[in-house]
Amino acid sequence: MQAEQAKNFSSSYLVNNLVNPVRFYDAVQKIPPKAIIIEIAPHGLMRALLKRSLHAESDCLSLMSRKESDNLHYFLSNIGQLYTLGLRLDLKKLYPPIEYPVGTGTPMLSPGIKWDHSKEWVVPSWEEFLPESSIYSTTIGKWMI
């Protein structure tokens, strides 16, 4: 009967959750070691409890915190933490897609780059880095094969 109630979000489902005990510890024990747990909630209330209940090698992150003044920064910091934990994230989904050609009002990068031409530098050619015993002949300019 409980599995059937869980399929539909109804008043009986809510009443069932309110009158029956939560078996949180039993569920946490089924989380494997070295797991990454992401708490998706308006505030990471369960994070401290999870850290105490999980294996030492596991990591627990929350994506929001009501104590933070800048939740966007908090969210992106935790996304960065996921990356450092080894998850490969598709960060392109955080930004709107670029449609080409870009609009006429789009700022370009090139005006922001200023080259300093006040000094001249000698740039050696790649042949000058070859040892004398190289199989490349500089006089002919061909590889001796």
Automatic annotation (TrEMBL):
Cited InterPro entries: Ac_transferase_dom_sf, Acyl_transferase_dom, Acyl_Trfase/lysoPLipase, PKS_NRPS_Biosynth_Enz
Any Pfam family the entry gives: Acyl_transf_1
GO cellular component, one term: cytoplasm
Source species, domain of life: Eukaryota
BP terms from Gene Ontology: fatty acid biosynthetic process
Alphabetical list of SUPFAM superfamilies matching this protein: FabD/lysophospholipase-like (SSF52151)
Assigned keywords, A-Z: Fatty acid biosynthesis, Fatty acid metabolism, Lipid biosynthesis, Lipid metabolism, Multifunctional enzyme, NADP, Oxidoreductase, Phosphopantetheine
Domain Malonyl-CoA:ACP transacylase (MAT) span(s) in chain numbering: 2-86
Positions of transmembrane segments: none
GO molecular function, one term: fatty acid synthase activity
Protein name: Fatty acid synthase
